[in-house]
Amino acid sequence: MENFKRYAVYYAPRAGAFADRASAWLGWDAAACAPIAQPDLALPAEITRPIAALTKAPRKYGFHGTIRAPFRPRDGVSEAEIRSHLAELAASLPPAEMPALTLEDLHGFLALIPTDPAPINTLAAAVVEATNPLRDALTEAEIARRRPERLSPRQRALMDRWGYPFVMDEFRFHLTLTDALNAHEIAPLKAALTAHFAPVLPTPFVIEDLCLFGEDEVGRFHLLHRYALNG
Length: 231
Description:
Blueprint: E1 6-11, H1 17-26, E2 28-29, E3 34-35, H2 51-54, H3 56-59, E4 65-71, H4 79-92, E5 96-98, E6 101-106, E7 109-114, H5 118-131, H6 140-145, H7 153-162, E8 175-176, H8 183-197, E9 205-207, E10 209-215, E11 221-228
Antiparallel strand pairs: 1-4, 1-10, 2-3, 5-9, 6-7, 7-8, 10-11
């Protein structure tokens, strides 16, 4: 049943230790469409908030890396059409292979990023361009939520053209692990999460699929289908 208000194209790891640990950290399994218990991880003394509070914002999305940001389909575009479009697109694009992932502070929140982002930058640009005909134009409310007064002229132009300001040369692929953190939380939590994820980080890091996600009526994102990159 088509009951999703927005769709997105994400990276999500295939089943395995990396996917399991990342989903558990956030507390939401997007593939199973269900909450899961977060780890009983001993956090540094500087971290007084529980893990649930540290991960509230990214939890609703599930563990993912954005390739095409959430969009409303334009009138007449069904979920079946989106699925067909992505299947055809994935068949024409190669996987994106990068050496590794590293955990970084991105302006106050922690995320895993690729050590050499060039392959995912190329992939993401192709996906954004190919899926643009599927999306509806942004409403005034959607534009306002992007705080256009804080965007650079280039970012505003990209939003007007592609529906999102952080695409093409402004794109930075990342796998979000936390909410915005207090300054004193960043360094100790970064150290703890580096140790927590080190045993399961893939080397090399390969994006093998385009994953179609749907946003339900309460704002939770569900993994609807995985399309292997076979180009």
